[in-house]
């Protein structure tokens, strides 16, 4: 009996901590359906409101080749956290451009974490704890030890690839 009870507790604990990827909710702040919490790239790209801009903006963006060549020399095993809103105009523009850059850099997708927020820029389950997210999208670069190297918030100062290069050169 004790073994069955212990196994049941373990299964329940796993289910509580397991998070639904590409979770859809109706956001009261924006009065529309959105993605919330951890997302996959595919889930984000296929979400109807986000997809309508993602595909053409990704296809039409050409990152600066010289900056990409310089970035390729600097990029190692860093991790990137992308915090965005499926409802946000800046996210709809900058996230596809950012992924085009990552693809040009052959950046490993396993090193990219994507978090969708609601209209109050919140996510569930403490996903944003300690990140100080005030605007979206926010692209945060971390070294392999998890120390923040820098971030791009809402939009770039120069270009996304130019701002990435400035962060890597610090």
From TrEMBL:
Highest taxon in the source lineage: Bacteria
KW Signal (keyword) present: yes
Cross-referenced InterPro entries: Thioredoxin-like_sf, Thioredoxin_domain
Pfam families assigned: Thioredoxin_9 (PF14595)
Keyword Hydrolase: no
Signal peptide: 1-18
Domain Thioredoxin: 7-170
Protein's name according to its UniProt entry: Thioredoxin family protein
Annotated organism of origin: Pedobacter endophyticus
């Amino acid at each position: 009996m004790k073994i069955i009870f212990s196994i049941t507790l373990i299964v329940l604990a796993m289910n509580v901590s397991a998070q639904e990827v590409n979770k859809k909710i109706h956001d009261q702040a924006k009065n529309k359906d959105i993605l919330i919490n951890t997302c996959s790239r595919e889930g984000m790209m296929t979400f109807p409101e986000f997809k309508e801009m993602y595909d053409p903006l990704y296809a039409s963006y050409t990152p600066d080749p010289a900056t990409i060549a310089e970035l390729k020399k600097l990029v190692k095993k860093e991790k990137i956290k992308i915090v965005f809103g499926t409802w946000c105009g800046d996210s709809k523009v900058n996230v596809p451009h950012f992924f085009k850059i990552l693809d040009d850099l052959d950046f490993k997708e396993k090193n990219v974490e994507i978090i969708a927020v609601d209209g109050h820029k919140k996510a569930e389950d403490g996903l944003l704890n300690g990140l100080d997210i005030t605007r979206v999208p926010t692209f945060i670069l971390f070294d392999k030890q998890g120390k923040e190297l820098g971030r791009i918030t809402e939009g770039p100062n120069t270009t996304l690839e130019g701002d990435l290069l400035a962060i890597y050169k610090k």
